[in-house]
Structure formats: C-alpha cells, structure tokens
Amino acid sequence: LRSNSSPKFTLKLPAITGTTRRLKDNAADWHNLMARWEKLNEDGFTVAGNIVAIALTRPTSDQLLGVDESSSPPPPSPVSGGAAELQDECCKLQDVIDKMVVVVKKMERLTALQQGVQDLEEFQFGLEGRKIPLFHSWNAKHFKESSCVLLESFSQELKLKQTILQELAHTATSDLSMIYMSCWLHQPFITPQTRLTLEAVLLETGHHPL
C-alpha cells in the first residue's frame, strides 16, 4: 500500500505546491516591503521637518539685499552654516527616496512574478485558470490584479515624494511647507483600499487567520 500511494502523492502535488508556495512567499514579500516603506516614510518625515525648520529660519535673498550698505555686513557663518546644514538634510532626504525607489523596483519584480504565475496557470489550465482555488477562493488572476493595485499606489506615491523633495527646501511660506509635510506623512496615494488589498492577500494566503 505504501509503495502504491507514494507515487500518486509525488505526481499530484508538485505543480500545486510550487505555485501556492510562490504566491505565499510573494505575499510575505509584499508585507515586508510595505513595512520597509512605512519605516522609510517615518524617517523621511523627520528629515523633511528638519529641512522646513532650517529653510524657514534662513535669511531670504530680499532680506539680504535690503541690508543698508553703510551698515556692517551680516556675519557669513550663520548663513553659510545654515546653507550647509540644509544641503546635508536634503541629501538625507534624497537617500530616503533612493531607498524608496529600491522598494518600488522590488514591487515591480513581485508584480512581474505574479504575471508569470498567471501565464503559467493559463498555459496549464486554459484562460479560465484552474477550477480549484489555490487557497480559499482566489485564482492566479486575483493575485496578479492585487499586485497591480499595490504597485500603482506606491509608484504614484514615490512620484509625489520626489516632487516634495524638489520643492521643500525652496518653499518660502510656512503654510505651503505644512502642506508638503502633510502630504508626505499621510501619503494620499496609499489609500485605505491599498491597505485592504494587502490584508486580503495575507488572509487569502493564510498569513493572517480568517
């Protein structure tokens, strides 16, 4: 009996196990990448706050031009020191965004992997995919569509943060600075739907209990 049952087990499960394992690993990778992103977002918010504080306390060009010629010129060290400090903080924020670019590139690879899984499923089972769900109720197409939703959200959010980096140090008013800071912190392109999509992926793959 043992010799008869073992070949059946070996022949039946490899393709299913390979696909489900890949999808489950991808789901864990999505979770880890989003956690990494959130940590970078917190770090970036702190640095952005430093940039705003320095930029708003530096003398403007109008203030410098308005100094009377007969008066003694202002000491160069605070201004130049502030400029150097501002440049340093801008470099730190650029470093944060560079790391966010890496996160999004990894998300692109995950989405490409999901597409590959869907293509394989369609090759094996036809355009409708397998009849039996991979986990609870989803097929490969559901996983690919979820990955596309997540990737689009983070790609758009990355573009917003790159724009904030370009503008933040040159913003002359505190009101506009606060708008940029709020946009950075609250991440308008990463909506509740984005987070629900990840939660659905984790529930479907068994990382979170139903």
Instruction: Determine the mean pLDDT.
Output: 82
Number of helices: 7
Give, in order, the helices and strands: HHHHHHH
What percentage of the residues does DSSP assign to strands (E)?
A: under 5%
Poorly predicted segments: 1-16, 61-80
Instruction: Report, as a whole number of angstroms, the end-to-end distance.
Output: 37 Å
Key phrases:
210 residues; mainly alpha; 79% helix; 0% strand
Short overview:
This protein is mainly α. It has helices at 2-12, 14-57, 61-65, 76-125, 140-168, 174-186, 192-204. The chain is built from seven helices and no strands.
Note down, in words, how this protein is organized.
The chain is mainly alpha-helical and 210 residues long. It has one domain (16-58, 80-205). Helices cover 79% and strands 0% of the residues. Helix 2 runs parallel beside helix 5 and helix 5 packs antiparallel against helix 6 (174-186). The two termini are 37 Å apart. The model is unreliable at 1-16 and 61-80 (pLDDT under 50).
